[in-house]
């Protein structure tokens, strides 16, 4: 997800998407620990997307 897409979403949508992405990241991480993923860069992409959404939520709380 790009930053411009994240800014367009509402706070409720961001909270919902953050929960889903964190669960997806945890599941992928566990799957990777058992058997290596075909594309381990998926983990990096998900982690960064979670960070982008969390940053946007924090930014909105401070405003």
Automatic annotation (TrEMBL):
Keyword entries, A-Z: Ribonucleoprotein, Ribosomal protein
A GO biological process held by the record: translation
GO MF annotation, one: structural constituent of ribosome
One GO cellular component term noted in the UniProt record for this chain: ribonucleoprotein complex
One Pfam match: Ribosomal_L29
NCBIfam families: L29
HAMAP family found in the cross-reference section: Ribosomal_uL29 (MF_00374)
Homology family: Belongs to the universal ribosomal protein uL29 family.
Name of the protein described by the UniProt record: Large ribosomal subunit protein uL29
Gene: rpmC
């Amino acid at each position: 997800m790009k930053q411009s897409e994240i800014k367009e979403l509402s706070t409720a949508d961001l909270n919902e998407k953050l929960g889903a992405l964190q669960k997806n990241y945890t599941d992928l991480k566990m799957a990777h620990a058992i058997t290596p993923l075909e594309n381990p860069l998926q983990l990096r992409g998900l982690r960064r997307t979670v960070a982008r959404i969390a940053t946007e939520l924090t930014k909105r709380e401070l405003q």
